[in-house]
Amino acid sequence: MPCRAPLLSHLLLFLFALGRASGTESSPYLPAPKDVRVYSYNFHSSLRWSPVEVDRGLVLYTVHFKTGAFNQWDEMNCTRIAQTECSFPWSLKERRWTVMLRVRAELGQVTSDWVETDPFVAERNTTIGPPHVKNVIENSDSLLISVTPPFGSEAADFLQYHVSYWENATSTTVKEAKTSSTLFKIGNLKELTLYCFRIQVELRTHSDHHLLGLQSVPKCHRTTISEATRAGYIVLIFVFVLLSVSVGLVLLWRHRKTIKYWSQPPLEIPSHFQEYLKDPSMPVLEVLDNCAEDDPHDSLSVVCFEEGRQTLDGQAHLHSISHDSEVT
């Protein structure tokens, strides 16, 4: 027994030295990716995760997938990538397939644990966006709306559009309508009124599963005026103009004397009469009267005044030839 103790101690020392030489020490720890989830919008799907933070080196990532029909992990064209997102390949575009994915971080030869996702089925778990409003035609009592679906539909798909519309007023009542056509009409509307609407898509699959999409941003359009209302407005304008003209004529007739009085220019006494009124002793009026009696025709008189006395320097008469005179 005493001989076996040294032999056992030597054996333990040998195994310890062999372990150090072969590098069987524990590897450094690398954390696994977090926030791993499948992001799918209008059947465009990808796997996303949060980056792994380390003090040294560049962390790479590897993604695997498997389906419900083949329970075997396979590569996904995302092996040792630096991005934190991996898009689904064309082999996984089938909407009805059940897909599981997993991702891990890698730093040199060190790898983290795998992080697996829950089963994903595109026709059940994707997010459907709102349809695109292509065109809106305003009428007096309706809105004609044309839309395009948010994704390319398959043969087994059935799309239904849920339309909510309301009058843009302080207190409104929202009305609902459903249609499977991309060109539809909202009817029984008031003319010259602003209406708003929003649309969302409902997908019905072959398995009778219903997937309701997101609502669109409200769009507002005003209805037009009808031809009957337009004709009524024209008649009202014509009657108003006719009444205005009639009232104006009546007022002019009633106040014609006042208007005539204010429209005539003020009467003014000629300047030579003003001079005579200032000094009645002037012989100007007598001379003018004599000339008027002798010659009924037009005359021109030139009157000159000197300072301190008034004299009549000369007169010039311009006689016209009478119509009964003989021409020689």
Q: What is the 3D form?
A: elongated
Largest sheet: 6 strands, antiparallel
- Uncertain segments: 1-27, 302-328
Oligomer: single chain
Query: Over the alpha carbons, how many angstroms does the gyration radius reach?
Result: 55 Å
First-last Cα distance: 191 Å
Strand content: 25-35%
What structural class should be given to the helix and strand makeup?
alpha+beta
Instruction: Count the beta strands.
Output: 21
Q: What is the arithmetic mean of pLDDT?
A: 78
Give me the number of helical elements: 6
Write down the secondary-structure element order.
HEEEEEEEEEHEEEEEEEEHHHHEEEE
Considering DSSP H and I runs of 4 or more, what fraction of the residues is helical? 10-25%
Can you describe what's shown?
- This protein is α+β, with helices and mostly antiparallel strands.
- Helices cover 24% and strands 32% of the residues.
- The protein is built from six helices and 21 strands.
- The strands form six sheets. Strands 3, 4, 6, 7, 8 and 9 form a six-stranded antiparallel β-sheet that branches. Strands 12, 13, 15, 16 and 17 form a five-stranded antiparallel β-sheet that branches. A three-stranded antiparallel β-sheet has the order 1-2-5, with no helix packed on it.
- A hairpin with a 6-residue loop joins strand 3 and strand 4.
- The longest helix is centred in the last third of the chain and has 28 residues.
- It starts with a helix and ends in a 12-residue tail after the last strand.
